[in-house]
Write a structure and sequence with these properties.
There is one protein chain. The protein has about 700 residues and is of the alpha+beta class. The chain has 31 helices and 13 strands. Strands 5, 6, 7, 8, 9, 10, 11, 12 and 13 form a 9-stranded antiparallel beta sheet that branches. It has a 4-stranded mixed beta sheet with strand order 1-2-3-4. Helix 5 packs across helix 6, helix 12 packs antiparallel against helix 15 (about 270-285) and helix 17 (about 305-315) crosses helix 19.
């Protein structure tokens, strides 16, 4: 019954909205263990069970403290909800934390401290439950089984598929055996687990893991051997975490055990997320991952020392919760780790760089124009080698997929693969030979022109069409796509209405790609706002937009979109016709479309509100200003921003849209009514404050 119940919660005891009663480590686990004891011994009193030898003194104390804490929280939750409620939902967590006395500090929110303590108790209670039931199984249910014993070493043996210490003084006499045990298990597939008595021995001797233990070369070798082991690395690290060994051996890891971040972006505690990152890295070795993560699988097969990737995964978020930049703090910690474990200078520098820059690749892919050769050259100059690129890509993909499964959509996969591919080309070509932007555009045009000539277009007709798109269009599309769209532009008369074309941006695999919506029409006010509002009403999410207006007033706009499931639009003529017709209606009278889609706000988003942040800067040698907006996510947010741009008389040249849990981080290239950067301080002040006030107003209206 317990196993089935745990499966309903994906066997995760660190869920964002846990159930106090039914989640792993919750009250039902304690009741299950007590029901077994009631049936066998006629008692559920922890002290009596300690006297019977079913619980140790430490386990009885953890049982009492944990149960008392869960009762306290559950009673407070019932008072707050004014009804029976066992789910620690977001709408209750912050208020309950305040009622129970957890105040905010400069480093951490009170709700994070409250949930941290909850997770610590749950972890310990689950361990008590496991040990109690396993001990019951071993000493009572299987007491008459003939033991099958295989000697492993002077410290350990296997009894009926479970590893155990050969005698009670193993760890007190040889503290290193506390790491040796996990190395043995990671090198064999036939060991089912650790016997309860041995788990208890480990816990009784945790105090032996001190600075001398951590600095012992023999123990350092054991830990590195574990990271290099062929099997069950994640299972062993997870056991070490649950038994308290990992947090003692790496005190910096001990600080993040049970630590949550109160947002929708990170759906696991930091330590659980770390374990999942390493699990994802291991999965890149499996053939079953080849189809979904072909580049990551290639990377892990190419890197020379896989243990360096695991170390980076172990430390990439270890600095969280201390205040300051967690990447910088983690880089310092991992450098100390590498030096203590005898890694050479080159390996240490690599791991330090990976931890410090573990967010770089994702940031560049989502916020910068990766089709621009200059962006690629700058990123390649930071990466410096193909080997470091392989390490960073594998870490980035493992991290994204372990943070929140919804983050890995088709478009993000496409962007990262494109960035990886172009950076590898730049590194192979040599950083001293960067690609010239104009040469790239020229090469695309030459190839596309040849295709168009074969279709019967003259040179004059081709050049007449190409007065409309900007150079970005030729950087972002293949010659085949350029020729296809150019032919349509040539054949279409905008006097009869807009031309709307849906292109399939195919990725390397089925998990990649998106739908690009190309709009060709006469320039008029509010085009960007009208387009994004129409797409919002169609329940489509825009991730990228490029707007270009020719000197004679013709617009060629492109929008990259996915449906509500994060997939490209179905290749269904009815679906695509509906999208085209809705956009055509919106663009026929863009001035009349003044309201965004009225979509119901998801429950979880209601409880995450942060003040909107707006910043504008003017990059040198560019005509546009760069506007960055960080705001609470709400349905129709992009449409509202589009309306505000129209109201303020701003033109949009491009947009990068990133939704990260409950917040969005959007980057817009904008121009004033004169088509230039916004340099007037009064206008900039008006823009920033108007956006802040109106977007905060939208958030408050939907909360």
């Amino acid at each position: 019954e317990q196993d089935k119940r745990h499966d309903q919660f994906d066997n995760v005891d660190y869920g964002l909205e846990p159930n106090l009663k039914s989640s792993p480590g919750g009250l039902r686990d304690l009741q299950t263990a007590m029901w077994v004891c009631q049936r066998k011994f006629g008692t559920t009193d922890p002290q009596t069970l300690e006297d019977l030898g079913m619980l140790t003194s430490e386990e009885r104390e953890r049982f009492d403290e944990g149960r008392r804490y869960l009762w306290w929280v559950r009673f407070g939750l019932h008072l707050l909800a004014e009804r029976k409620e066992d789910r620690l939902l977001f709408e209750h967590q912050r208020a309950l934390a305040q009622r129970l006395g957890f105040a905010d500090t400069s480093a951490r929110l009170g709700v994070e401290r409250f949930m941290h303590l909850y997770y610590q108790h749950v972890l310990e209670l689950r361990e008590v439950n496991d040990i109690l039931l396993q001990h019951f199984d071993e000493t009572i249910l299987r007491s008459k089984e003939r033991p099958r014993i295989e000697a492993l070493s002077e410290h350990f043996q296997i009894r009926n598929d479970y590893i155990e210490a050969t005698h009670p003084a193993v760890f007190s006499q040889s503290p290193s055996a506390m790491l040796e045990l996990f190395v043995i298990m990671a090198n064999r597939r036939d060991i089912s687990g650790v016997r309860a008595d041995t788990i208890r021995l480990i816990r009784d001797n945790l105090d032996l893991i001190d600075d001398d233990f951590r600095n012992d070369p023999a123990n350092n070798k054991h830990f590195l051997d574990l990271l290099k082991a062929p099997y069950t690395l994640v299972s062993q690290l997870t056991r070490m975490r649950r038994y308290g060994v990992l947090g003692r051996y790496l005190p910096e890891f001990g600080k993040i055990v049970g630590q949550m971040q109160h947002d929708l972006f990170h759906i696991y505690t930091v330590d659980a997320h770390t374990m999942m990152v390493i699990r994802n890295m291991r999965r890149f070795h499996y053939r079953s991952s080849q189809e979904r993560f072909p580049v990551a699988c290639h990377c892990v097969k190419s890197i020379p020392k896989i243990e360096l990737l695991y170390i980076a995964g172990l430390y990439h978020d270890i600095g969280k919760g201390r205040g300051g930049d967690h990447s910088e703090l983690g880089a310092t910690d991992v450098t100390d780790f590498c030096q203590r474990h005898g890694l050479n200078e080159s390996d240490t520098a690599l791991v330090e760089w990976l931890v410090k820059k573990h967010l770089l690749m994702s940031s560049v892919a989502q916020r910068q124009d990766i089709y621009d050769p200059e962006v690629i050259h700058e990123f390649a100059s930071e990466v410096k080698s193909e080997m470091r690129l392989d390490y960073l890509y594998a870490l980035t993909v493992a991290d994204i997929n372990a943070t929140n499964p919804t983050l890995w959509n088709n478009w993000r996969a496409t962007l990262l693969r494109q960035l990886y591919s172009e950076t590898r080309k730049a590194l192979r070509r040599g950083l001293e030979r960067p690609v010239d932007r104009d040469a790239t555009v020229r090469a695309c045009k030459e190839s596309a022109a040849e295709r168009l000539a074969n279709l019967g277009l003259s040179e004059a007709q081709i050049q007449r069409v190409w007065r409309i798109p900007s150079d970005d269009f030729f950087l972002r599309h293949t010659p085949r796509q350029v020729a296809e769209v150019s032919q349509l532009l040539h054949d279409h008369d905008v006097a009869g209405g807009p031309m709307i074309v849906l292109l399939d941006l195919k990725g390397q695999v089925s998990e990649e790609g998106a739908t690009e919506i190309v709009v060709y029409c006469q320039d008029q006010a509010n085009l960007f706002a009208a387009s994004v509002i129409a797409l919002s009403q169609l329940q489509l999410s825009v991730f990228d937009a490029n707007i270009h207006t020719s000197k004679d007033g013709l617009c060629l706009n492109t929008f990259v979109a996915l449906d509500t499931h994060g997939q490209p639009l179905a290749r269904n003529s009815d679906v695509r016709t509906r999208v085209s017709d809705a956009l055509a209606r919106a663009l026929a009278a863009p001035g009349e479309l003044t309201t965004a889609a009225n979509t119901r706000l998801p429950r979880r988003l209601r409880h995450f509100t942060k003040s909107t942040q707006v910043s504008l800067h003017n990059p040198p040698h560019e005509q546009h200003s760069v506007l960055t907006i960080v705001a609470s996510d709400r349905p129709g947010l992009l449409a509202t921003i589009g309306l505000l741009f129209a109201e303020l008389g701003l033109g949009v040249r491009s947009a990068k849209i990133a939704t990260l849990g409950e917040r969005v981080e959007d980057v817009f290239h904008i121009v004033g009514q004169d088509g230039q950067q916004l340099t007037d301080q009064e206008s900039v002040y008006l823009l920033e404050n108007t956006l802040r006030q109106r977007l905060d107003q939208l958030v408050n209206q939907t909360t």
